[in-house]
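pasting for the record
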Amino acid sequence: MIVFNGEMDPRAFKDVLGAVITGILDGDPDAIYLDADLMSCIGTAKYACQHPDRAIQCGIAEANMIGVASGLASAGFKPIAHSFGTFASRRCFDQAFLSAGYAGNDITIIGTDPGVSAAFNGGTHMPFEDMALYRALPGATVIDITDTAMLESVLPQCLSRPGVKYIRVGRKNNLRVYAEGTELPIGKAVTLKEGADVAIAACGLMVGEALKAAEKLAAEGIRATVLDMFTVKPLDEEALVAAVSKAGAVVTAENHNRVGGLYAAVSEALARRHPAPVEYVAVEDEFGEVGPQDYLQTRFGLTAEHICEKARAAIQRKR
C-alpha cells in the first residue's frame, strides 16, 4: 500500500535494520550475521553480546569479513554481512567477486549510508559507485531501499535468493512511501503514479523526490508516471518498457554516479527494447564531500526540482 504524503518516515533505517536482522537470526538457525565494527550503528550490538555464536564481530577488516561470510555460506549457513556502503563495496569487492560470486556462495551484503546519505562522514565514506561495482558481478542482485517498510519486506527475501545480494540503505530517516507490512517482491518495479507525458524511474531516497516532482509537474499540466525501480539488477524491463511506451520519454533519478547505476541499467534496457529519450538526475563525475544531506542533495542535483527540469527536457526530445 502506498501512503506517500511528503512526510518523513517516523522510523529510522538503523532501528528497523537492527530489528529485522535480529528477527531473521531468531527465526532461522542457519542465518548468521557478520559486521565490521559497526554493530552499534545499526542496533545489533546488544544481540551480539547475548548471542556471540550468531553474530560475528570481524573488526575493521571488511575483506576478511566477506571471506568469512563466503566460507560460512559454503558450509550451509546464510550469512548477512554489514558495513558502511563504501567499505561494503570498494574495500571488499575482490572477495565478494571471487570468494562469493565466482565460488557460488550465496551471501547478503548490506551497505549503509550510500551516496549523500553519508552526510557528515564525508567523501571518504560516500559511495557513488557501489551499485556500478555490484551490477558488474555476474548473477548479483542489487537493491536500493526506499523506506523502512521496503527494508522489512526485502531483506528476509534475500536469504533464500541465490548469488550475491547487495542492499544499499541509509541509517537515518527518509520520506515514507509504503505502509508497514507492504509486500515488495524483489525484481518487480512498483508503479506509484501513472501519467502519459513522461516516466520517472527512481530508486532509494530519490523515490520520494520523484513523487514530489510528479506533484509539481501536475501543477503545470504534465502527467508523470513514477516507477520505484528498487531492484536495479535484475531490472524489471517489462514494467519499464510499458511505462515508457505510454509516456514516450523517461527520467532516471538515483543517489549514485550516473555511470553504472540506474541510469545505465535503464538506458541499456531501452536501447535494446524500446529506444526513447532518456534524461538523468544523478551525481556527475565527482567525489563526495562533507555536509548535511539536504545541502548535498542540492549540491549534487538530487532534488525534486532537478527531476522536474530533466522531465521537461525529456518531453522536449520526444518525436
